[in-house]
Design goal:
TIM Barrel, 33% helix, eight-stranded parallel β-barrel, 9 strands, alpha/beta, 252 residues
C-alpha cells in the first residue's frame, strides 16, 4: 500500500518548542524522514531558526527578532511559555543558529529538510543577502535541503543557482497560482490543505510533488495522499507514525 512521506513541521512541535534543536532532534529520533523549519535573520544578518518576527509567542518577550543582534538571540530562551509553562525553562532551549540544523543533518544523512525563508527577513535584508547567508551555512548538507518560500522570487533565485531543490508555498488555490507554478516549475508545491477544493477537484499536474500542512489526522493524510499528495506536514510526528497505515519502509 502506498503511503505519503511525513514532514515534521517545525520539528516535533506538538510536544516540544517549535524550531528548536530539541524539537528537530526529537522529530528525527521518532523516525521523521523530513523536517521543516523557518529561517529569520537577526539584525546583523545571522540566520536563526524562528517563525515569527514578533518574539512574544515563543519567547514571552515583546521584542522583534529583526531588531535584535545574534549575540542577544543566541541567549534567548524559546520555550513557548504559553503552551508549555516552565517545562523547558532553564534547560538550554534557546533560539538556534542555522548551523544547528546542518549539524543534525550531518548526523542523519537519511533525513531531508525543508528550509523556509521567511518574508519578513527577505523584505528587511533582501533576497540575495538572505539566500547567501542561508546557503553558506547549509553548504555541507545542501543535498539534503530544499529551500521553500511564499515569495516566487526565492524559487527563481534558487533554480538559477542550481544548488538546491525548491518548494513554492501557495498563498491561494487560483488560476493565477496555477500559471505561476507552471512558470516556476518547483520540486514541491506546498499548501495548507484547507485551501484546496473539497470536491475532489484534481490537483494540478506537473513536475512537482504536492505537500500539504498542517495535519494530525491519519485519515485526512491518507485521503490527501489518495488525491495525489506525496508529502504531509505534521507537528505531531510521533502520533502520525504510530498509525501503521502511515509507516513507510524508510526514507528515500
Amino acid at each position: 500500500m502506498s503511503t505519503p512521506q511525513l514532514v515534521a513541521h517545525r520539528g516535533y512541535a506538538a510536544s516540544y518548542p517549535e524550531n528548536t534543536e530539541l524539537s528537530l532532534a526529537k522529530a528525527i529520533e521518532h523516525g521523521a524522514c523530513f523536517v521543516e523549519c523557518d529561517i529569520q535573520l537577526s539584525s546583523d544578518g545571522v540566520p536563526v531558526l524562528f517563525h515569527d518576527a514578533a518574539m512574544e509567542r515563543t519567547t514571552g518577550l515583546k521584542h522583534n527578532l529583526l531588531t535584535c543582534p545574534y549575540e542577544t538571540l543566541k541567549k534567548t530562551e524559546a520555550c513557548e511559555p504559553a503552551r508549555f509553562g516552565d517545562r523547558f525553562v532553564g534547560k538550554g532551549v534557546v533560539i538556534p543558529h542555522l548551523s544547528v540544523l546542518a549539524d543534525l543533518l550531518k548526523k542523519a544523512p537519511r533525513v531531508s529538510a525543508f528550509v523556509e525563508l521567511k518574508d519578513e527577513s527577505l523584505q528587511k535584508h533582501g533576497l540575495e543577502t538572505m539566500l547567501n547567508a542561508v546557503l553558506s551555512v547549509l553548504q555541507p548538507v545542501l543535498k539534503q535541503c530544499c529551500m521553500i518560500a511564499y515569495d516566487a522570487e526565492v524559487i527563481r533565485a534558487v533554480k538559477k543557482r542550481n544548488r538546491s531543490r525548491s518548494g513554492w508555498i501557495l498563498k491561494s488555490w487560483s488560476e493565477a497560482s496555477h500559471q505561476e507554478a507552471k512558470a516556476l516549475s518547483p520540486d514541491f508545491l506546498i499548501c495548507n490543505h484547507t485551501k484546496i477544493p473539497s470536491d475532489l477537484t484534481p490537483l494540478w499536474a506537473g513536475p512537482w510533488q504536492w505537500c500539504f500542512y498542517e495535519i494530525t489526522d491519519p485519515d485526512l493524510a491518507l485521503l490527501l495522499h489518495s488525491r495525489g499528495a506525496g508529502l504531509i506536514e505534521t507537528m505531531d510526528i510521533e502520533k502520525m507514525l504510530s498509525d501503521p497505515r502511515l509507516r513507510t519502509g524508510g526514507c528515500f
